[in-house]
């Protein structure tokens, strides 16, 4: 991964102008394909001159299996990363026309940390490319007072779309979609961040 505050072309990013992007990897299944999709997307996001990327892989977190009555160190660390983010991109597969239970749990363990922040989506799956999961997630994030951006990145028939090095076999379309989505996320992140400073959200 690109070091924080750096640029892959050697030009340093201006840290005071960076937006923190939380990239949430929603699948925790053994043998999942999420790592491949997340690795590719995080690499692109790190190249964006206005973003500092925090890759939040749910499979690597030790969130409690049963929601506790009070905060735990693991939950506190996780929600702290969400609070520090200015925007999010959720990477999700589609399981049985829906998104993973692990992702729903991770969303529901937080509340105010999501509010007034933009959310983008990268989805993958079979013929639908995970878009049915994304449509459901839009409703969930609307309830949490987050702003979902219109553009998405979607991989249909995902197992045939990536090469052995973890990159899309035809990267032009996915990379273009990712840039468009990230530019929208950045616009909304700056707008909502400025609005929160001027007037606290109720």
TrEMBL record:
GO CC field:
cytosol
Pfam families attached here?
Answer: FMN_red
Q: Which residues form the NADPH-dependent FMN reductase-like domain?
A: 20-157
* GO MF term set: FMN binding; oxidoreductase activity
Q: Which InterPro entries match?
A: Flavoprotein-like_sf (IPR029039), FMN_Rdtase-like_dom (IPR005025), NAD(P)H-dep_reductase (IPR050712)
Q: What is this protein called?
A: NAD(P)H-dependent FMN reductase
**Which species is this record about?**
Saccharopolyspora shandongensis
């Amino acid at each position: 991964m690109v070091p924080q505050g750096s640029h892959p072309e050697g030009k340093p990013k201006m840290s005071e102008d960076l937006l923190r992007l939380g990239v949430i990897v929603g699948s925790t299944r053994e043998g999942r394909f999420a790592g491949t999709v997340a690795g590719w997307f995080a690499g692109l996001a790190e190249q964006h001159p206005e973003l500092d990327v925090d890759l939040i892989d749910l499979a690597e977190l030790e969130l409690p299996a049963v929601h506790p009555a009070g905060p735990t160190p693991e939950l506190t660390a996780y929600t702290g990363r969400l609070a520090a983010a200015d925007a999010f991109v959720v990477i999700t597969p589609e399981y049985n026309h829906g998104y993973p239970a692990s992702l729903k749990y991770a969303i529901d363990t937080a509340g105010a940390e999501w509010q007034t922040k933009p959310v983008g989506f990268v989805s993958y799956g079979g013929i639908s490319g995970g878009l049915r999961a994304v449509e459901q997630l839009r409703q969930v994030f609307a309830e949490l007072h987050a702003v979902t951006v219109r553009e998405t990145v979607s991989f249909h028939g995902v197992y045939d779309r990536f090469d052995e090095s973890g990159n899309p076999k035809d990267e032009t379309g996915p990379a273009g979609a990712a840039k468009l989505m990230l530019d929208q996320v950045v616009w909304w992140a700056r707008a909502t961040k400025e609005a929160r400073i001027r007037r606290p959200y109720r």
